[in-house]
Amino acid sequence: MPNDPSDVRTGEDPTEAVLSESGLNSKHLCDYVINVATGCRHGCKFCYVPTMPSVRTRPEMLKDRADVDDAQQEWGSYVLYRDDLPDRLDSHLNRKRTWKRTSKGCGIVGISFATDCYMDGRAGKITREVVDVLSDHERYARILTRNPILSLQDLDVFKGAGQYVTVGSSIPSMDAEEVGAIEPQAPAPEHRVRGLEELNEAGVQTFVSMSPTYPTQSKEDLRAQLMEIAECDPSVVFHEPINPRGANFKMTVDAARSADQTRLADELERLQKRDRWVEYSLNHLRWMQELGDELDMPVHLWPDKQLLKYADPAEREWLEGWRERQSPEDFANRDTPSTPMPDHPGTANAAGVE
Ligand code: SF4
Question: Domain residue spans in the chain?
């Protein structure tokens, strides 16, 4: 993993697709996605993107354009940019006659969920132009970045787009050392909060994704984190626990250990035992719901489908309710729920982890 940004191999991405329909409407995020690049400088160890077909099935292109031998192992050290995307998007939208709008995705375009659209200046320039094109065509854009401070350079575009744009950041934890161990190239969490605060002060709608929260976090840690996040006045705080699936989970544990974050590494490793994962996931989801109520914050939970299989019937009903519940944002003219959710089942904190 490069420490020097100039060590990242770069090139141009020949991807032809402009706008892709997305399954992220199941998380109330969007119906379409646009990715401004293939590859991501942040190189988060838990990142699932290198396992996606857009990366996994293109080894020859990655070898040819950025000398990549192993897309997963080298994740974070190659980026192929899509500089011509804004022009092609404009032509595409001029020709496009139908637009998908599901009740959860609301026709929103997500930028970018398979890379960070503000990972650097070149990606940011593409993003700026993409947002401009989308708002010209009156399409809603949901920007997700771990570097909202860099996005501040585009405040004029966001203000011009007005109701058509919301900017959010993933803030899994406020522990900079733990976050830095498994998100080695990304800005520290306090920078993300500060960037969102400035966006909010400038009148831009914001959101936060506490995804994934770490098994080392207590309820008190989550409370303190939510209180810091409250300063950004986000329209929603999405939350999900980590899921120890896939080859990249071992890389995540190894990265925590080699950064001397032994407690994090040990706790992550324990999640590979299903009972422990279920206990931690239910605790974090329950705590986040309680804290959202306590602090009057717009928390929205993303329970994993697999968790439903292992929960007891009352918990399953509670989790299913969250999977169906509408995000509390009014962004993109969303219909917000008129009835409150049933309380979570009053199961005791079995392990007293709190
Ligand atoms: S910022 Fe997002 S896309 Fe980039 S490495 Fe991290 S999780 Fe993956």
Answer: 17-37+85-324
Measure the CA–CA gap between 200 and 194, rounded to whole angstroms: 10
Question: Angle 163-169-173 (CA atoms, 0-180°, nearest 5)?
Answer: 150
Q: Which atom of ligand 1 is nearest to the CA of 75?
A: 5
Note the pTM of the prediction, 2 decimals: 0.93
In 3D, which of 301, 336, 333 has the Cα closest to residue 106? 333
**DSSP of 235-249:** S-EEEEE----SHHH
| Whether residue 42 has its Cβ less than 6 Å from ligand 1 | yes
Is the shortest distance between the CB of 297 and ligand 1 below 6 Å?
no
Residue of minimum CA distance from atom 6 in ligand 1:
44
pLDDT per position as a tens digit, 285-321: 999 999 999 999 999 999 999 999 999 999 999 999 9
Strand-pair partners of 110: 33, 142
- In CATH, the number for domain 17-37+85-324 is 3.80.30.30
- For 119, residues 6+ apart whose C-beta sits below 8 A from its C-beta are 37, 40, 41, 42, 79, 145, 146, 147
Confirm or reject: Cβ of 239 under 6 Å from ligand 1. Answer: no
